[in-house]
């Protein structure tokens, strides 16, 4: 079964390009497009896609607020949202992650990474563009979180601390497995344990927690 995606961007040429890239993937189907945030939210609520791919800067309702309405902490049945942006140092991206986005990419990420991000979000995971993970999260975590980050409900093991750092640096599960010489299933188990102990929903929030607690230095 195909992964159904709604694309929202105020530039028609960008929407067309994203649709062409995604529709070329054998397991992904674009089921709707929107040129502004308000329409994107309406469309997403009606179609209930597997993933929403939203630009940050859109008229009527920006991508951050659209994300919050569909995936925020107060949403009972959140949708998966991936944010895509032109700028690699855009403060709005950090806000979008706080609003519930499962990942973010640059618009020049390329078809392979875009497909990976969509599949990760559809599978309940998240993908942060590795090229900007540390620079972006580090820059804005340096300003301090809106509230002090919660402490783990249970102390992290040494291995979990290692996994935490690799996730914060944008490594994929396969890359973590190779780097730490452990199996893929072991990586997934540790990430699930981290989410439970930290009280977070996905690896984006794991990365944010790592930066906010200064475990990763920018």
From TrEMBL:
Modified residues (4-aspartylphosphate): 55
PROSITE patterns: HTH_LUXR_1 (PS00622), HTH_LUXR_2 (PS50043), RESPONSE_REGULATORY (PS50110)
GO biological process: one example: phosphorelay signal transduction system
Domain HTH luxR-type: residue ranges: 149-214
Sequence ranges assigned to domain Response regulatory in this UniProt record: 4-122
Descriptive protein name: LuxR family two component transcriptional regulator
UniProt-listed SMART domains: HTH_LUXR, REC
Species the sequence originates in: Nonomuraea polychroma
Single Gene Ontology MF annotation: DNA binding
Keywords noted in UniProt: DNA-binding, Phosphoprotein, Transcription, Transcription regulation
């Amino acid at each position: 079964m195909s992964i159904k995606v709604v694309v929202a961007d105020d530039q028609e040429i960008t929407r067309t390009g994203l649709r062409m890239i995604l529709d070329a993937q054998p397991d992904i189907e674009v089921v709707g497009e929107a040129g502004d945030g308000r329409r994107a939210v309406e469309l997403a609520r009606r179609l209930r896609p597997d993933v929403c791919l939203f630009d940050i800067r859109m008229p009527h309702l920006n991508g951050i607020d659209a994300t919050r309405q569909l995936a925020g902490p107060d949403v009972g049945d959140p949708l998966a949202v991936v944010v895509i942006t032109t700028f690699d140092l855009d403060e709005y991206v950090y806000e979008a992650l706080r609003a519930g986005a499962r990942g973010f990419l640059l618009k020049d990420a390329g078809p392979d990474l875009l497909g990976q991000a969509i599949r990760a979000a559809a599978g309940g995971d998240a993908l942060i563009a590795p090229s900007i993970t540390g620079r972006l999260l580090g820059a804005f975590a340096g300003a301090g979180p809106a509230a002090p980050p919660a402490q783990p409900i249970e102390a992290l093991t040494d291995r979990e601390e290692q996994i935490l750092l690799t996730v914060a640096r944008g490594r994929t599960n396969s890359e973590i497995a190779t780097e730490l010489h452990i199996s893929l299933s072991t990586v997934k188990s540790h990430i699930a344990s981290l989410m439970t102990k930290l009280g977070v929903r996905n690896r984006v929030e794991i990365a944010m927690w790592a930066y906010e607690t200064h475990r990763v230095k920018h």
